[in-house]
């Protein structure tokens, strides 16, 4: 396994080198066959990296502990899900995962654009190939994930740290990588445009969606990291301005700037230098982030390795990239001249320019403050650090300025806004902002920071609402539908613009969540069973401290009854401390959270005395924190809409019948499920016989039977930890030892209980198959029905405007477009 | 043209002065010295009363907790130099014997007084120092 993996990495490096050389040579000689050969080699890199990834995953699943990386990050009892996610659990594997993703993304980008951007593709291949070569070089020379033990290999692995065996932590790194790696594609196209001199807007069209896709995953990765920190680390917060957190944030700022700035170039032919510079800076910041977290240049409370050798490799790569890329920018400056000058500071393009500056400043400030200890040490030998207060002092006003721009940008006209235009556009939003600001001030909220944030959030939401309603009213006048249906039609006709507005709504909600942090309270309590204490409007009564064991870990759980100020019981909360068998010296604090949209009650039990029956309980009240997560959900919806092609689904909404959307929304509201917090502690009871499940077959059977004790929500017997299920698991073991097979054992239970209700899932045989088929049939049927109705609606002759069947009246479409444009 | 250059120059000057002033004042308030225990304990008198971030490793078996309270007393060392520290509050899960910590607080003749929420133990990182890199504490994961 190890030899095969190492050979694959070497082969990939050689193939990538050939792809770079062939592409550049082919482009320079205008040799199509050479270019095609380079592209073929580029695809081969993706294929080889896929095989190499398969090899390392197989090594994890099979438990090949002769490979050091596998031994360090997994063990035999680790669930298979975490064995697979251990692939990116350490430095060596994460670098390999990086190359794997980059090779896939690169191949897709080349495949999609090889015809429409024929002249750019050879250099796109060369740039991405060169980046792949750098990371492959790192692996082969320095961080080979396939390196083996020179002496006898251990029989078992060290296992993944318990804190990392968490749903959010498993998916947080790959989402961050998707964001980081995806941002290499715009960089490659930007460089290709600079090298070839094809600096019109076509390269922007090729990369806009890639940037948006990467930006979305970067946002998702940051949010997941925040949720993990909030639910797992037990300090009550989600962002601490740690260098590692900052590293992920840096490219997010500049990618955001690029997504906005690109519109000005498309529309007015301006900010060309900005755009090529932003894609270069964004790519560099992804490398800087990787460099910061792995080199030890910056001291972080994350125990990232100090590796001077790695730092040197990264530094050399970054210096080369800066010189090479900005060298091309300087060389191409004559071709990057703007087609238009800035006509007025009261214009949309001026707002975008300001947005660029503020976001770039934010990125540079965070980078400066993160590197501040290193800078001061280099200057005078003293390592001075700056903490969260310093960051907040600067980032709060920066955030508020960005919030102002979020609301102001959409209202300004291109080129120049007249006084009339300003009055017409800004009156209602400004009034809304003032009313909200006045209200929160009257409620005693301090003006600076939170109060201003609420007022500006009101202002921005008003601007966005005004924009959508105005557009929808125009459309309603044309189509005769109700307002909500007109809004959906409007969004579907201009997904990029209105998707962007929805993203802005999400950002505003996130800011409201941030503002809530200004009102958070925390208190430390020392309680014995039977005692209670009041924190804010809550009274916490400690009922008991209980010790249980589920076979994998021992759990010490505080049972706390929470009451409101009137004494009514709100909830039972169970903060806990877990001691994993293999990591007894590293207990994990499991927080208990009572969530509402107004505030979270966040309870941790960091310490306890079993003999004394005393629990130290830390209580945090975090107002509005769920708005941060909810805001991200809205942001995700908006990004999804903006990513859709402009023509997608247009046929379906071209002529929606009146009120159909309103009816659908009401129906959807009835069906909305509630969310689940994945990282919170769920106490499992005493389970002395869980280790009785000795074989995969027994585990399989235990998962196919439901607990019927009456108190366990019919959990599968394999998961349930009540005493009844322990007995049933023991019975299954005995029956297997007697030589019974799975179907015989299941039949025994069905016969004993007199029916299939004992099974946790319907049998996939006979009439049970109907149940299995039902979701597929209903799903497919629903989809086909919706598609059929959409086709009919879009082709139906309507009595409203006497349109010809099949297509929308082109005259009406152009009129609508004109009126929408006038709203800009 | 000249008028425009003057405007741009003045604007840049005002912005630079504002930025510099803000940076200076916030720096003066917000900075702390980042020191290793041995750097401070060679001449501790120099550091009394200064805001510090102190880096070191928890001396094995030195952690003591007062019963029925969140008062901790422990020792932190680096390169053979040791300092006693006190702290009241919640310690991170990763705070234990031999763990790498950064303490925020003030050095006094009695020892290091750690500020609230001032104990930062290393996160359960996925990335480790390579052998031959910086010295890692025993028991690191």
How much β-strand is present in the residues of chain A?
5-15%
Helix amount of chain B: 10-25%
Largest sheet of chain B: 5 strands, mixed, barrel
Question: What value does the Rg of chain A take, in angstroms?
Answer: 30 Å
Assign a percent range to the helix content of chain A: 55-70%
C-alpha termini separation of chain A: 60 Å
Topology, number of strands of chain A = 11
SSE map:
The complex is a heterodimer of chains A (824) and B (141).
Chain A: H1 2-29, H2 32-62, H3 68-73, H4 80-85, H5 91-113, H6 121-141, H7 167-182, H8 184-196, H9 202-233, H10 243-268, H11 272-295, H12 308-331, H13 348-380, E1 384-386, H14 388-408, H15 419-442, H16 447-479, H17 483-493, H18 495-516, E2 521-527, E3 532-535, E4 538-549, E5 553-563, E6 569-573, E7 576-580, E8 583-590, E9 592-595, E10 599-609, E11 614-623, H19 625-643, H20 650-653, H21 660-671, H22 696-703, H23 723-737, H24 742-753, H25 768-795, H26 810-823
Antiparallel strand pairs in A: 2-11, 3-4, 4-5, 5-6, 5-7, 7-8, 9-10, 10-11
Helix pairs in contact in A: 1-2, 1-6, 2-5, 5-6, 5-7, 6-8, 7-9, 8-9, 8-11, 9-10, 9-19, 10-11, 10-13, 11-12, 13-14, 14-16, 15-16, 16-17, 16-18, 16-26, 17-18, 18-19, 22-23
Chain B: H1 2-30, E1 31-36, H2 37-41, E2 51-58, E3 64-65, E4 71-78, E5 81-88, E6 100-108, E7 111-121
Parallel strand pairs in B: 1-2, 5-7
Antiparallel strand pairs in B: 2-4, 2-6, 3-4, 4-5, 6-7
């Amino acid at each position: 396994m190890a030899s095969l993996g190492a050979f694959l990495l070497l082969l990939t490096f050689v193939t990538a080198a050939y792809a770079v050389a062939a592409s550049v040579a082919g482009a320079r000689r205008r040799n199509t066959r050479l270019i095609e050969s380079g592209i073929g080699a580029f695809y081969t890199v993706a294929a080889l990296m896929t095989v190499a990834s398969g090899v390392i995953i197989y090594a994890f699943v099979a438990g090949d502990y002769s490979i050091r990386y596998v031994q360090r990050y997994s063990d035999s009892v680790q669930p298979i899900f975490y064995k697979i996610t251990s692939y990116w659990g350490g430095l060596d594997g994460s670098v390999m995962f990086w190359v794997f993703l980059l090779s896939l993304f690169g191949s897709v980008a080349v495949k999609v654009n090889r015809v429409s951007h024929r002249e750019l593709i050879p250099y796109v291949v060369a740039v991405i190939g060169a980046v792949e070569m750098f990371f492959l070089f790192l692996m082969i020379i320095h961080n080979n994930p396939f390196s083996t033990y020179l002496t006898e290999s251990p029989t078992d692995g060290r296992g993944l740290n318990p804190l990392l065996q968490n749903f959010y932590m498993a998916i947080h790194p790959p989402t961050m990588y998707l964001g980081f790696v995806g941002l290499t594609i715009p960089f490659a196209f930007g460089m290709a445009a600079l090298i070839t001199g094809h600096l019109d807007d076509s390269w922007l069209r090729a990369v806009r969606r890639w940037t948006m896709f990467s930006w979305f995953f970067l946002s998702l990765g940051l949010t997941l990291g925040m949720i993990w920190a909030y639910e797992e680390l037990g300090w009550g917060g989600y962002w601490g301005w740690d260098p590692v957190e900052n590293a992920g944030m840096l490219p997010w700022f500049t990618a955001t700037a690029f997504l906005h700035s690109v519109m000005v170039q498309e529309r007015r032919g301006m900010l060309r230098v900005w755009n090529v510079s932003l894609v270069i800076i964004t790519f560099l910041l992804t490398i800087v982030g990787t460099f910061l977290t792995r080199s030890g240049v910056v001291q972080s409370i994350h125990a990232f390795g100090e590796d001077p050798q790695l730092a040197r490799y990264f530094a050399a790569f970054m210096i080369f990239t800066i010189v090479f890329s900005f060298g091309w920018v300087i060389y191409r400056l004559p071709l990057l001249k703007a087609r238009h000058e800035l006509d007025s500071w009261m214009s949309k393009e001026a707002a975008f320019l300001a947005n660029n500056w503020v976001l770039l400043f934010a990125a540079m400030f965070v980078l400066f403050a993160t590197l501040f200890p290193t800078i001061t040490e280099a200057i005078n030998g003293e390592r001075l650090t700056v903490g969260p207060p310093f960051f907040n002092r600067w980032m709060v006003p920066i955030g508020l300025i960005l919030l102002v721009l979020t609301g102001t940008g959409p209202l300004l006209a291109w080129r120049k806004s007249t006084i009339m235009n300003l009055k017409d556009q800004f009156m209602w939003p400004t009034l809304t902002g003032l009313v909200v600001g006045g209200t929160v001030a009257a409620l005693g909220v301090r003006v600076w920071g939170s109060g201003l944030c609420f007022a500006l959030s009101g202002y921005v939401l008003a601007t966005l609402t005004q924009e959508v309603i105005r557009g929808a009213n125009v459309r309603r006048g044309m189509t005769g539908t109700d307002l909500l249906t007109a809004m959906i039609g409007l969004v579907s006709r201009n997904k990029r613009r209105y998707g962007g507005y929805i993203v802005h709504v999400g950002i505003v909600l996130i800011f409201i969540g941030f503002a809530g942090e200004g009102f958070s309270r925390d208190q430390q309590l020392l309680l014995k069973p039977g005692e209670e204490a009041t924190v804010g409007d809550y009274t916490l009564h400690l009922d008991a401290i209980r010790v249980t064991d589920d076979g994998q870990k021992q759990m010490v759980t505080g049972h706390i009854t929470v009451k409101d100020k009137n004494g009514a019981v709100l909830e039972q909360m169970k903060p806990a401390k877990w001691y994993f068998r293999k990591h007894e010296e590293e207990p994990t604090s499991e927080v208990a959270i009572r969530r509402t949209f107004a505030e979270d009650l966040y309870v941790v039990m960091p310490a306890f005395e079993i003999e004394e029956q005393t629990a130290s309980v830390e209580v945090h009240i975090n107002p509005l924190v769920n708005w941060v997560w909810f805001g991200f959900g809205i942001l995700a919806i908006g990004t999804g809409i903006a990513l859709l092609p402009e023509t997608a689904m247009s046929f379906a909404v071209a002529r929606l019948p009146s009120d159909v959307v309103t009816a659908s929304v009401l129906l959807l509201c009835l069906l909305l499920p509630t969310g689940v917090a994945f990282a919170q502690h769920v106490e499992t009871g005493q389970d002395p016989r869980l280790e009785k499940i000795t074989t995969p077959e027994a585990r399989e059977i235990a998962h196919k039977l439901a607990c019927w004790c009456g108190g366990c929500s019919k959990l599968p017997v394999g998961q349930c930890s009540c005493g009844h299920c322990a007995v049933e698991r023991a019975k299954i073991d005995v029956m297997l030892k007697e030589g019974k097979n799975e179907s015989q054992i299941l039949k025994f239970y069905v016969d004993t209980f007199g029916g299939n209700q004992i099974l946790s899932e319907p049998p996939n045989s006979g009439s049970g198959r109907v149940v299995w088929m039902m979701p597929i049939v209903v799903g497919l049927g629903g989809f086909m029905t919706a598609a059929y109705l959409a086709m009919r609606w879009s082709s139906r002759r309507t009595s409203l405007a006497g349109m010809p069947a099949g297509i929308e009246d082109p005259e009406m479409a152009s009129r609508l477009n004109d009126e929408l444009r006038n709203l800009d | 043209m000249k008028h425009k250059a003057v405007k741009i120059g003045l604007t840049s000057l005002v912005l630079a002065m504002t930025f510099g002033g803000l940076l200076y004042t916030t720096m003066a308030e917000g900075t702390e010295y980042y020191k290793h225990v041995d750097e401070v304990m060679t001449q501790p008198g120099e550091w009394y009363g200064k805001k510090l971030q102190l880096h070191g490793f928890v001396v094995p078996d030195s952690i003591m907790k007062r019963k029925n309270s969140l008062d901790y007393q422990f020792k932190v060392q680096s390169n053979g130099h040791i300092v006693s520290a006190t702290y009241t509050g919640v310690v991170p899960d990763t705070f234990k014997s031999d763990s790498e910590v950064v303490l925020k607080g003030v050095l006094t003749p009695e020892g290091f007084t750690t500020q609230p929420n001032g104990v930062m133990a290393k996160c359960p990182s996925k990335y480790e120092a390579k052998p031959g890199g910086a010295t890692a504490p025993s028991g690191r994961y």
